[in-house]
Amino acid sequence: TDVNECASPDTNGCDRNALCTNIEGSYICRCLKGYQGNGRFCADVDECANVETNECDSNALCTNTEGSYVCRCFKGYEGDGRNCTGTGNKFSCF
């Protein structure tokens, strides 16, 4: 009979940010989305370090979070951070 090493974190060497998959006679560790590594060690991916790894609007601030990221529109813009539009407020020096 096959032992399910994934039944308990104590019986496998997978990182806490990895998915353990039981296979016949062994197991496989794979890092969760937002993490990278070999499954036994998974490090957070900084999606904000590269514009190609996040979906933030060019008028938004990208903030890396554990396993993900958050987009917030800059002041003077509104939206969900992935789509930001100017609020149309114009300031006058009069």
From TrEMBL:
Ranges for domain EGF-like: 2-43, 44-85
Keywords, in A-Z order: Disulfide bond, EGF-like domain, Glycoprotein, Repeat, Signal
Single GO term (MF): calcium ion binding
Gene3D superfamilies reported in the protein's UniProt record: Laminin
Source superkingdom: Eukaryota
Record-linked InterPro entries: EGF (IPR000742), EGF-like_Ca-bd_dom (IPR001881), EGF-type_Asp/Asn_hydroxyl_site (IPR000152), EGF_Ca-bd_CS (IPR018097), NELL2-like_EGF (IPR024731), PKC-binding_NELL (IPR051586)
GO cellular component: extracellular space
Protein known as: EGF-like domain-containing protein
Organism the protein comes from: Pocillopora meandrina
